[in-house]
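Q: What changes when NAP is included in the input?
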Amino acid sequence: MNELLLGQPVLVTGAASGIGRAVALRLAADGRSLALLDRDTDNLAVAAKEAEAGGAGEVVPLAADVTHAAGVAAALDRAVDALGPLAGLVSAAGILEPGGLADVTPESWQRHLDVNTTGVLTLLQQGAPRLRDGGAIVVISSNAARVPRTGMLAYAASKAATSALARCAGLELAARGIRCNVLEPGSTDTPMQRDLWPDPEAGRRAALEGDPGAFRVGIPLGRIARPEDVAEVAAFLLSDAARHVTLQQLFVDGGASL
Ligand code: NAP
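A: The predicted holo structure follows.
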């Protein structure tokens, strides 16, 4: 446990699953206090218990939907009441529904914008006043924000907007010494990713080796990311070791965005 991090609480959205959960557990191992927000209350309770068992200071589970601004504000208030002003915010809540130009529905387009884009804007707008000067923000976007992908039109567009809004917000927050960085993962082994693979073995192979029919080059490092790979970079960006790093968009994708 790092004694210095004991009094530096972090709020993580999407903390019930995948990358958000891995970030929570990584920060727990440092002894951070955590506010864990997700709409999946059952898995949120499990993740909160795991974080406690993994060494976190205090853990506050927050059942909330990032598309409901009033609920996010109330959740942030509960976090600050319990833990004090936040030292970090991590946005990992997100959705992915397959769909391309020919078949994306207006409803699916809107859901992507509501969760992946407006949900992040809400978190940053509501979270910034509750963040200490000198704090840090990490937004989990996607390499699809910068690399076109077939069958992911709404997802990619929502993530491109998210990467841009996070960097604009970070520019404004720099005056308070708050750093804001964007992580853009590639294929990462989480429930979201597995939902895209009706045949898990074929899905893994296509992600690793590439798929010329889908204009995908594969993953040069030859492995699908573990959620912990992304969490490790998030923990670095939240830490004082990254004290002069802000407004960056960092691929964490084994080279898949070449
Ligand atoms: P995941 O396993 O599906 O976890 C996402 C979590 O966010 C789930 O618990 C989900 O709850 C929650 N969530 C979704 N919408 C929410 C909302 N409106 N309010 C509150 N919570 C909500 O996905 P993941 O793979 O860890 O993805 C985490 C982030 O990384 C996402 O932003 C994703 O776009 C990004 N990412 C993932 C990959 C990948 O390959 N896995 C690659 C690039 C980027 P429900 O289960 O109820 O939806």
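Observations recorded in class: The chain has one domain: 3-186+225-251.
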